[in-house]
Amino acid sequence: MKKVLFLLFTIALTSCGLTVSNDEASVKQKEFYKSYENCEPSANNCTYAQVSYPYFEGENAESLNAFVYRKCIEALGMFNETSYNSLDEAADAFIQEYAVFVQDYPENEQSWTLEFEVKSLNDNPDFVTLEQNFAGYTGGAHGNSTLFYTTFEKETAKQVTLDGFFKSGYENELSEIITNQYKLDNGLTPADQLTSKTDLFVDEIEPTENFHILPNTISFIYNAYDIAPYTNGLIQIEVPTNGLKHLIKNQEQV
Questions:
Q1: Which residues pair with 115 in a beta bridge?
Q2: Of 130, 164, 185, 186, which sits 20 to 30 A from 69 (CA to CA)?
Q3: Cβ neighbours of residue 201 under 8 Å, at least 6 residues apart?
Q4: CB 87 within 8 A of CB 9
Q5: Domains parsed from the chain with CATH numbers
Q6: Using the 8-state DSSP alphabet, how is residue 18 labeled?
Q7: Residue 33 in 3-state DSSP?
Q8: What is the pLDDT of residues 141-161, one digit of tens each?
């Protein structure tokens, strides 16, 4: 069985500006669904690929829509290293791989599923934030899931990265802040070592590009295996922006 490759979602937009709005009136949610032998997702042992994603309208929306569509294709192709050009092509390959599995193991009643949902969040006036939820199962003891955020500045269409958002030399201090916040949230003292007091793999939690900017906090999201075992699930550390402003380049954005 092939292992899931968790891809970081990155992009460089080439448009001169992102003038689309991400309110409900200007964003349409599109749906894609394809299944093995046309089964319904509610049916027992149904193998399917399902995608839900926003479609933006307005000037310069093409670049953002192209980014979203490409991420949907990549999500359906996470179980192999092949590059696809459409959702149909990626879903067909996934279902064909399952058909080969059924042929090789006809006695096995296992079903496979791929689900990917992208939502446009309207929770910060300066940004367009895409929340990307992936869940997949192709056998084994459990499925796999990830949550990832990608944020763009509304005025420039530029993706917000750690290096672009924080001042030069932020790394060590931000790591310390995130680590201390995790300890505070979990009833630990600043002197406690995470590897001895918790299941975490690390004693210092480094900042991740998987972050979500809110009006009063910045959440740093760590999926299974990023810093802890699968059993720990998703780890989300919310850091108040009041303690980060001296590290942020443009303090008007928080």
A1: 50, 135
A2: 164
A3: 195, 227, 228
A4: no
A5: 24-153 (3.30.565.40), 162-253 (3.90.640.20)
A6: -
A7: strand
A8: 888 999 999 998 887 778 899
